[in-house]
Amino acid sequence: MVKTLAKSAAKKSAKKPLRKAAAKPSVRKAVTKAKKGKAAKVKPARARKKADIAAAEGASPAMTPAQIAEAFRRLAAANPEPTTELTYTNPFTLLVAVVLSAQATDAGVNKATPALFALADTPAKMAALGEDRIRELIKTIGLFRTKAKNVALLAHKLVTEHGGEVPKTREALEALPGVGRKTANVVLNTAFGEHTIAVDTHIFRVGNRTGMASGKTPYDVEVKLEQVIPPEYLRHAHHWLILHGRYTCIARKPLCERCVIADLCRWPGKTTVN
Question: Which pTM does this prediction carry?
């Protein structure tokens, strides 16, 4: 009997350290902590600027695969069904909205597109509307003259070369006027469910700062993100990262105190609060 109790006690004591070592903050606790504004704090402006320069050079410490997986687990828990903030009704209006959003805010684009899409929500209607009318409808958006020309041309090309349908390949999309790799990736992901990462200024910053994917160019960051993000999160990864960069990991003074992945982030510009 004594031997049995001793063995049982020994087994329990041997298991305790293992449980302690494997313990991690739960997703719920991390999200709750961030919502209360107690996740982390940022260093002074000079230190943040220095940390950002180092991050842009790829000098930030890298997150581990386990940390990246945990980061997306938390982002998913905080926002299970993320989506674009651009207003659209079909793949074509999404394509046009993304083209118009270059060097402009989504909010600004959303103010102009309702009137445009009310008149032309298909390539045929947009081509018939013409460059002059398009320009008049989007004149509140930056670079509206160039964008009006591109929208008119891409609509015409969709009608004459793609039967009025938005193509589902990156190559065909990038061949359209005003459409680059980032725009193509947004359309492929949002309209067609492809596992693409459209690296804009926000995702570029988040990738470098956090240590998820450092790179000197958007393409470098895109390739690395596709390699390190767990497959089950790739469908929505683009939206989680862009929203995180737009509202939390902002450029001038990130809101680390409300960041759900603050303790996982490797950016030297913040200090984790225990």
Answer: 0.82
